[in-house]
Amino acid sequence: MAASGYIGRFAPSPTGPLHAGSLVAALASWLDAKAHNGQWLVRIEDVDTPRCVPGADQTILNQLAACGLYPDAPPVYQSQRGHLYQDALDQLIAQSQAYPCGCSRLDIEQAIAASGPSGHKRERHGELIYPGTCRNGLNGKKARSWRFLSTFHLSNRPSDQQIRAQAAPDLIASDIFRWTDRKLGEQQQNVAEQVGDFVLKRADGLWAYQLAVVVDDAAQGITHIVRGQDLADNTARQILLQRALGLPQPKYLHTPLVLGVNGEKLSKQNGAEALNLQDPLTALTQAGLHLGIACQADRPTHWLQQAVDQWAARFKITA
Q1: What does pTM read for this prediction?
Q2: β pairing state of 76-77 and 39-44
Q3: Which of 159, 173, 177, 313 is most solvent-facing, going by the fewest CB within 10 Å?
């Protein structure tokens, strides 16, 4: 661990090379780590193997290096860590905090439709909010996936977990879950109502992002998470999992998104082009401007030094 105790990370999915938006996320996480005199790690989130592009991981690492962003330890790969995710799922099952689900997407759509007119609105970010059909058993259906019981409150916990949980004032004792983001401020979400019982292991046998990221952050000792604002919506779920598994909670900071011409988050899905790193200084300068960082430098190393100082001043970091 770094002398400051800070460990941050950048966790790209190898579905293609970095684009302007992903460089902003990488740069923000790197700046925060260096401003804290901490470590910066890279984790390749290749758990969704059908979407991964062969060789994209090395392309991403080369792009980061071209910009002077070097991890402080060799990258780890989620595809090699399935045993850790299984251990976590087994723990949740033993605690009655995870259950098997036999519902297909069609089953979920039909259950939502049957709940009345308001049920048709229960969809967010293209993901249906699970109505809890299998909470009390599969009713003859074959298990397809595993879900986290989002209504598992403090009163249901084993006594040893209650003791640990009561030390956290913003725990799960009420339906509204609250946390503080270093940039966005106070945040809240009713996970049971706004998200539902979310998937931990998918019907195709692949591990879900929420479980994998929580397990990996704890295993790598991550203390601070800096990532794009589109992922802020995941934070409540991840903190719930951290609490359920008895894992430490990192501090969070979510940065503004780079938007495409259609006003949506810049991504490979909406035509984001790969970074042109023939001129890394220009790429860093453009990424920095999006983060409110403006430096005058003739080479990437000098630019990064100035950027760290500006970042530390903005967030009042005195590492």
Answers
A1: 0.88
A2: parallel
A3: 159
